[in-house]
Specification:
This is Probable butyrate kinase. With about 350 residues, the protein is an alpha/beta fold. It has 2 domains: about 150 residues, Nucleotidyltransferase, domain 5, CATH 3.30.420.40; about 180 residues, 2-Layer Sandwich (Nucleotidyltransferase, domain 5), CATH 3.30.420. The protein has 12 helices and 12 strands. Strands 3-2-1-4-6-5-12 form a 7-stranded mixed β-sheet, sandwiched between helices. The protein has a 5-stranded mixed β-sheet with strand order 9-8-7-10-11, sandwiched between helices. The protein is globular and about 55 Å long. The model has no long low-confidence stretch (mean pLDDT about 95).
Length: about 350
């Protein structure tokens, strides 16, 4: 018996969808949303109907009938801590990501879109390797302030898929290697895989800045800015997530545009772009200490890893730790579909989401 699976993965300015029949990719499409349209919404949750309509419109253009589907699988959103693997989407999960998300994030839209399609045709829907997968060591949870515990939020889906893929390429088991994986995209996060788990990480708000996120900023200055009277809470959130990083410095979130500026002789653009690479390297160095420097590989993945300029700067600073592997782009759609396929085949159990 064959299975047709639709995978849904919203990003900050796009919604990526893919159709698989068993392990075969039928199509994959990135549905771009103009930045002006994204900016017209007050928050991410308000984008749900727009993104649903864009997805359904594309499927209609492809003359694909959703009744042919066996399951829909979605990127896991900002839930309270969960384990890696599959969870069946239920009403409680939808209520959480729509009304009570841990933080605002485009991934919160994935489960509602998938659930709506699946419910209409009476098939199961899942999330897989949620952003909020939590397998941290106890010692890694301590932040320095009891009021601000560290949470586990990183690009789990892509980084875990890349770590597993790398291990297979070396004829090793995923759980017998120590691998640091840096996901370089609209948001940047870095995590370390040891013993088959993500045991620590540098999240996108405690590490490198990225095309649209400010990353770790000086706490005292941040507090002063929050209480300056210049900005409300919502605006401050947008300064850190959405209007930070490359956008704040250079008025673009496109790394290719930044490289064009650099190639045209823009020294400020070079300084900012190299600073981003510098901070990524610092994050990798931080995580090497988690396993006492016994790192088998460092993987650079995500869309910006296509940049030879940026990755060369990073490699110069971290190659003394371990070999650096460039695995550019994302394997997220395949990781989602294959995860759901294992559940449908009975090779892996889907967990029930509870709070």
């Amino acid at each position: 018996m064959s299975y047709k699976i639709l995978a849904i993965n919203p990003g900050s300015t796009s919604t990526k969808i893919a159709l698989y029949e068993d392990e075969k990719e039928i199509f994959v499409k990135t549905l771009d949303h103009p930045i002006e349209l994204i900016d017209s919404f007050d928050n991410v949750e308000d984008q749900l109907q727009m993104r649903q309509e864009v997805v359904m419109s594309f499927l209609k253009e492809k003359n694909f009938d959703v009744k042919e589907l066996s399951a829909v699988v979605a990127r896991g959103g900002m839930l309270p801590p969960v384990k890696s693997g599959a969870y069946t989407i239920n009403d409680l999960m939808i209520d959480r990501v729509e009304k009570r998300p841990v933080m605002e994030h485009a991934s919160n839209l994935a489960a509602p879109i998938a659930y709506g399609i699946a419910k209409e045709v009476g098939i199961p829907s899942f999330i897989y390797d949620s952003v909020m997968t939590d397998e941290l060591l106890d010692i890694a949870r301590i932040s320095g302030s009891p009021d601000i515990p560290r949470t586990s939020a990183s690009h789990v889906l892509n980084t875990r898929a890349m770590a597993i893929k790398y291990a297979k390429s070396k004829d090793k088991r995923y759980d017998e290697l120590n691998i640091i994986v840096a996901h370089l995209g609209g948001g940047i996060s870095i995590n370390i895989h040891s013993g088959g788990k993500i045991v620590d990480l540098v999240s996108d708000d405690e590490g490198p800045f990225s095309p649209e996120r400010a990353g770790r900023v000086p706490c005292r200055e941040l507090i002063n800015l929050c209480y300056s009277g210049k900005y409300d809470k919502k605006t401050m959130h947008r300064k850190l997530r959405g209007n930070g990083g490359l956008r704040a410095y250079l008025n673009t979130i496109d790394a290719r545009e930044v490289e064009s500026m650099i190639n045209a002789g823009n020294e400020e653009a070079k300084l900012i772009y190299e600073a981003m690479a510098y901070q990524i390297a610092k994050g990798i160095g931080d995580l090497a200490t988690v396993v006492n420097g016994e790192v088998d590989a460092i993987i650079l993945t995500g869309g910006i890893s296509y940049s030879k300029m940026l990755t060369s700067w990073i490699k110069q600073r971290v190659s003394f730790i371990a070999p650096v592997e460039i695995m550019a782009g994302e394997n997220e759609m395949e990781a989602l579909a294959y995860g759901a396929l294992r559940v449908l085949r009975g090779e892996e159990a889907s967990k029930e989401y509870t709070e």
